[in-house]
């Protein structure tokens, strides 16, 4: 029986594709100059993950083991093409902003990794949920990183929201502070490396505190047992 709660924890925190597996870092660091860019690429990646996981799960008993990887890549490339055409048709400005990083979703190791490690061994529903959680975890990191860099670099948030949500989102931009000289370190790629390092450090610190909290009662009980025996 599939443990959907465990799949959620794995995708969002314990085995997050970006923070733990450190996969897909090239597009993650390159396009997260704004919140909307990160959200757009994250949603595209999540759709590809869900679609490819379900398809791989459906054909897992048909495809021969010797050719499974090329077949998985073809499936992923097909879904990337679908997402790329949809973005070209409905979110053209965002499509131009993300550029080459949309077709490069094909080479994202997180997607082929989930197809091989999970979807090829599980049923479609569980595979779809795993793809959704892994995609959501990846999207969350993209959004946090993009929002942090946009706020520090330009003093705004949700700039260009109309590129993803249409004309109704033109007034969604939040101006936190105005500056004549943007903080270039946050906007340029070196800022992405620094911000990513801070996010990974923060997660590791939280994990260490959680682990210490879990082991403290066991250590206390063990000390009490040893004291009682002596």
From TrEMBL:
It is a multi-pass membrane protein. This is Ion-translocating oxidoreductase complex subunit E. It is found in: Cell inner membrane; Endomembrane system. InterPro entries: NqrDE/RnfAE (IPR003667), RnfE (IPR010968). Part of a membrane-bound complex that couples electron transfer with translocation of ions across the membrane. It comes from Alteromonas hispanica. Belongs to the NqrDE/RnfAE family. The complex is composed of six subunits: RnfA, RnfB, RnfC, RnfD, RnfE and RnfG. It holds the Pfam family Rnf-Nqr. It is an enzyme of class 7 (translocase). GO terms for biological process: electron transport chain. Keywords: Cell inner membrane, Cell membrane, Electron transport, Membrane, Translocase, Transmembrane, Transmembrane helix, Transport. The keyword Phosphoprotein does not apply. Its EC number is 7.-.-.-. One of its GO terms (cellular component) is plasma membrane. The chain crosses the membrane at residues 20-50, 71-90, 96-115, 127-148, 183-202.
